[in-house]
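Q: Please design a sequence for this.
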């Protein structure tokens, strides 16, 4: 029991680290496109780098798992939903939209995951998860609305439509890949899904990547590219995948609410923004929502709320 609880704690910490990287990714990736890398080139570069790193790690991993042929369709679906469609739509959408609008749309992910997981995986949705979802969403709205940037321009409409589809496909990925994470090691799963992504994305991004003028890219942009390749692409996918072994897909999804808060805290630390009552309130609501959604079905809080619901 103690070991199981420790694994759950480690899984939550891994998911938190993944979302820190995702939270930073909005602004950092936006700074690279389109002046230095096109969205197509950046997407393919991310997948190539992550595929190489996962295969490199597997060389030093002594456990050589064989993938069952019956799992091939699920690997292909996970690669298409979580890598190909997700990455392609995210960077193209972000190129037309803004980091703030992107974060607004991304908050739809937990609701999508909970509904998909309910129908596909029969994951239970209790009153605590619903309350946590509402509280977390309200915290994000407090933070985002304080920024005061909800205007939609001519190109933003296309970008936001892409980001909506990106959120939908990532939700599908979290649900579809969960059984694979329970059956295989995270490295094995990531190798498989990124290979699918690489093969499917190669025709779309190879020209843009091959014609990129690398000599004009300054060192600061190279640093941004390196962060995106190592953090939000390689480590974040690995951490989220590992976390799926010990927590529900809907719980992994709820942590997306922390991304705007993390971005604000980093901006304050760097002297780019100030901390006010609205941001503190948003942080409290977001982490309260995460706490509620992460509650186990047999926890004391869940039992109390069930009694209240019966009355």
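A: Design:
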């Amino acid at each position: 029991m103690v070991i199981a609880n420790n694994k759950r704690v480690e899984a939550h910490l891994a998911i938190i680290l993944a979302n820190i990287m995702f939270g930073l990714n909005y602004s950092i990736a936006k700074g690279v496109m389109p002046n230095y890398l096109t969205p197509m080139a950046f997407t393919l570069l991310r997948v190539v780098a992550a595929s190489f790193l996962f295969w490199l790690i597997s060389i030093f991993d002594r456990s050589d798992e064989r993938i069952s042929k019956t799992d091939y369709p699920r690997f292909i679906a996970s690669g298409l939903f979580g890598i190909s469609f997700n990455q392609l739509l995210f960077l193209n959408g972000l190129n037309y939209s803004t980091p703030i609008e992107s974060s607004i749309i991304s908050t739809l992910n937990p609701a999508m995951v909970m509904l998909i997981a309910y129908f596909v995986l029969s994951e239970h949705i209790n009153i605590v998860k619903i309350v946590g979802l509402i509280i977390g969403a309200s915290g994000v709205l407090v933070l985002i609305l304080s920024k005061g940037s909800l205007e939609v321009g001519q190109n933003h409409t296309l970008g936001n439509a892409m980001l909506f589809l990106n959120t939908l496909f990532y939700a599908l990925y979290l649900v579809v890949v969960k059984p694979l994470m329970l059956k295989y090691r995270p490295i094995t799963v990531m190798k498989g899904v990124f290979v699918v992504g690489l093969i499917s994305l190669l025709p779309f991004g190879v020209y843009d990547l091959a014609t990129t003028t690398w000599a004009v890219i300054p060192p600061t942009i190279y640093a941004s590219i390196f962060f995106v390749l190592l953090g939000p692409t390689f480590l974040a996918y690995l951490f989220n995948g590992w976390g799926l072994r010990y927590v529900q897909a809907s719980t992994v999804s709820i942590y997306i609410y922390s991304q705007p808060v993390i971005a604000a805290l980093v901006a304050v630390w760097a002297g780019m923004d100030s901390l006010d009552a609205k941001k503190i309130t948003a942080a409290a609501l977001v982490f309260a929502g995460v706490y509620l959604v992460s509650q186990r079905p047999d926890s004391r809080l869940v039992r109390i709320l069930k009694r209240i619901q019966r009355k």
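Q: Thanks. Anything notable?
A: Residues 2-310 form one domain. Confidence is low (pLDDT under 50) at residues 147-153.
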